[in-house]
Every structure is written in structure tokens, then in C-alpha cells.
Amino acid sequence: MSIYEFKAETIKGNEQSLSDYEGKVLLIVNTASKCGFTPQLKGLQELYEKYSTDGLEILGFPCNQFMNQEPGNEEEIEAFCERNYGVNFPMFAKINVNGKDAHPLFSYLTKELPGMLGSEGVKWNFTKFLVDRNGMPVKRFSPNTNPQDIEEPIKQLLSEQPASI
């Protein structure tokens, strides 16, 4: 199994197969507009601008499960991210990352890359999952991890070629 088996709704309301990102290095992040970590959007955008031509995609998944820090609708979220942080990496519709209504992608990611003490739940906004060019989750980063601190692992994965099909 890989992340390519999942689909998600884009922030514009279109269904997107994650297989469309096959061969790319992915950084999947649950985001929120009203969180103390929201300024990380700037760092994520900087990584995207620096490495997107090398095969990096950053996928943002807004989530309102942590103290209602993402109260807006998709149009408001998209406008906020673009206006305040210049975000132009792919953003998706608001989802749940925990519980019985968690998006299947996040259920998969948290099972494959458990957090502290083996916890499968996402603890807070801006938890980040790094996925290799073969669609396999390789590392989980806490909300406290600044995007710049993920640059070296990203560069390492970008230097590796995807496995042949």
C-alpha cells in the first residue's frame, strides 16, 4: 500500500487522486489559519518555491479539530493562505485527521508513522509527514518542527530515484 491509493477533495472542490503525485517527494501537512504555528505556512511556501522544480510537492490539509483553529470555509482558507503567506502549493478541502471521521489518508499516515510513544493520533496542527518518490511515508515531524529543519531530509529524498514499476 502507498499514498497513491487515496483520493482527496481539493480546496476548489475537485476530487484529486494522490497517484497524480507519483514520482514526487511529498510533505503532507495538516494546517490551520488561527494557530500559533500558522506562520509556518511561509516556511512551507519557501520550501515549495525552492524545490518544486526538483520534484517536491507540499500538500496542505486544513483541519478544525484542534481548538477550532480553522473555522473558515474553503474559500476563506484559500484566500487567507494566499493573501498572508503567498501559498500556491496544493491545498485541499478541510478534513478531520483524527477519530472515526478521519480522512483515510491521515489514518494511513498515522498508522505507518506513529507519533510519540506509538500514538497514532495527530496531536496538533502542522504535523508533517514526509513521503518518498514511491509514495511511502518515511518520517513524521511534530508541529514544533520548523519547515527549514526538514530541508535536509527533503533534499536527501529528492536525490533518490523512484523504484521502477
The CATH architecture is 3-Layer(aba) Sandwich
What would you give as the CATH superfamily? Glutaredoxin
Lateral arrangement of strands in the main beta sheet: 4-3-5-6
Major sheet summary line: 4 strands, mixed
User: Are there runs of 5+ residues with pLDDT below 50, and where?
Assistant: none
Strand content: 15-25%
Order of helices and strands: EEEHEHHEEH
Number of domains: 1
Radius of gyration: 15 Å
CATH topology type: Glutaredoxin
Secondary structural class:
alpha+beta
Number of strands: 6
Question: In angstroms, what separates the terminal alpha carbons?
Answer: 14 Å
DSSP summary: helix tally? 4
Concise structural overview:
This protein is an alpha+beta fold and 165 residues long. It has a single domain (3-159), classed as Glutaredoxin.
